[in-house]
Amino acid sequence: MAAIRTDPAAEARPHGAWAADLLATLMLALALYTGVRATSGLTWSHYVDSDRDISFVRSVMEGHYGEDPLYLGEKMWFTPLLFAIEAAGAKLLGLDVHVFQARAGAWLNIFAPLAFWLMARRFFGAYAGVASLLAYLCLMQGQEPGWAVATYSPWLLPMIFSQSLFFFGLMLLAWAADKDDARIWALVGAMAGLVFLSHAAPAILLVLLTMLLLLGPAWRELRAGHRSAAMRQIAKGLVAGGMFIIVSLPLTWYVIGDYLLDQKNRVPSAYTYRPLSIRHANLILFHNVHWANLVALVGIFRLWRMEATTPVRLLRWCVPLCLLLMAYAYAAVVMGQQWDIGLPMAVPSFHFYFYLKALLAIGFGVGFWWSVELAMRWRSKPDPKGQAATGWGTLLLALVFIAVFPAYAHRPDLVLVRERGLDRSSSVHEAEMRDRLVALPWTSVVLCDEELSMRVLMASARKTVATNSSMANPYVVPEPRMAAREAMLQGLRDTSADIGAALDAYAVTHLLVRTEDIGASPSLGRWFPHEVYRNEGYALFGRKP
Questions:
Q1: Checking DSSP bridges between strand 463-464 and strand 538-542, what pairing results, if any?
Q2: What tens digit of pLDDT does each residue of 20-58 get?
Q3: Which of these, 104, 109, 169, 126, lies nearest to 25 by C-alpha position?
């Protein structure tokens, strides 16, 4: 498949793209430098999502893949690719899981901007590719966190990590479009399945794009009376779909086989990123009204003026898909909260805003070079090979990068998150208690309040009665567990309460409390008579020796 050239000198000078590629390489190297610097010395990630991931990593390392590490008797529900990589990486390097996770993101996540650049270069040429990379790295995210917009961020979170697979998947889909080989479409399906194992949102986009790419021609062939040609298109989709099902089985075996995709806890998918809510619309304007997005919109509109090659069509479709899925996810949340209408939900709306920002970065690349070429036409001196346009354009990109890099290297996503990670890494009492919890049997169930369940217990992969609904199994009803937890904790403060039946119902074996709170629980010794471990911050008690 020939790339779409927005730089006219690329065809005339085979080596004419060296300056653009050199600039892109420099950008990637400096981005990696900022990531490594931000993660150096950390032993724990700031994000509670990381503790959830560690719980699943421990489930693999302790031989319990397929089980929910937080709720006894429940099944796995979270995308397994990243936590499997973390388990293998920590084992291979001989590091504690939390140390590997805190530092490895700088290296693993660099594949996201690399894949993005290769995709933009493949689709639109070297010069538009480097302009897109500049926007992706330094212009599109502004002050927004790295988990909310497509960019390079060193924090090892699934939505950040999965970008590279999505971008490689788009390249593979564009390459496969005019191929009839079943093996190629099996590869497309396998790639979509792999994306699904890393994160659901990019997999939804990739599956829908594959359907649009195949069903449109199939419908046109059927209308023209070409039944055999239409069936070839449908056969490609069936091969890809079959392979998708096979590759995605490490997750779908549980979420479909055991839970039938019935989300009883809608809190995780109902999360709304503040700038995307109607009442905070001023924030979305604050983050997006700037010159780079104006250039990006010019480029997005230019896509509809270009030759409708496969890459252009994929990106044309992807923009409205992101907007529609984002609007649907938000509408589902509002309708559920306001009118108790339970529309099907998969992921929060911001995950599609995330990829919309990646598309805007590509739009910036296209719009920037179109603007440069348009400006060159006003020059009186002819430039038939486009050498002046590419030369001046590359120089301008380099100057913009030099101007914005200091702010990029000190953005809140790096500085503030690192500071919070350092604070957590220095919390000795938390770490000591966590290590003691890991030493408990796998089936131990620890009663504790919500904050302790997230910040101390969760990363140990030991069970609890209830944790925060946003971090909990979406296929388990949260309210009975939360009510039982509060009733048991209240029973420790009330000497007349009998909580024995509740403790037995949830198979509770231990109690975790802050040391300072022990005095406020006069019935603690009655139900948890054995002190297992205590430090200056926390205490662990057991029902049995």
A1: unpaired
A2: 999 999 999 999 999 999 999 999 999 999 999 999 999
A3: 126
478 CB-near residues (< 8 Å, 6+ apart): 264, 265, 267, 466, 469, 472
In this structure, are residues 154 and 111 in contact, taking their beta carbons and an 8 Å threshold? no
Contact 424, 44 (CB under 8 A): yes
Whether 283 and 144 have beta carbons less than 8 Å apart is answered as no
CA torsion through residues 138, 142, 144, 150, sign: negative
CA 107 to each of CA 38, 102, 110, 189: distance values in angstroms, whole numbers, following the listed order: 12, 11, 6, 27
Element containing residue 357 per DSSP (H, E): helix 350-377
- Asked if residue 23 lies in contact with residue 397, where contact means CB atoms within 8 angstroms, the answer is yes
The predicted structure's pLDDT at residue 276 = 92
- Report residue 342 as tokens: 């339970």
Q: Facing residues of 481 across strands?
A: none
H or E element at residue 12: helix 9-12
Instruction: Give the position of tokens 């599956």.
Output: 207
Distance CA 246, CA 316 (A): 29
Looking at residue 536, its amino acid is: E
Which pLDDT band, with edges at 50, 70 and 90, does 173 fall under? very high
Structural tokens at position 83: 């936590």
Q: Is pTM beyond 0.85 here?
A: yes
| 403, two tokens | 């101007």
Cβ neighbours of residue 373 under 8 Å, at least 6 residues apart?
A: 6, 8, 386, 389
Question: 298-328 as b/e, with b when 16 or more CB fall inside 10 Å?
Answer: bbbebbeebeeebbbbbbbbbbebbeebbeb
SS3 annotation, 287-348: HHCCHHHHHHHHHHHHHCCCCCCHHHHHHHHHHHHHHHHHHHHHHHHHHHHHHCCCCCCCCC
Dist. CA 208–CA 54, nearest whole Å: 31
Q: Is 222 exposed, middle or buried (0-12, 13-18, 19+ CB in 10 A)?
A: middle
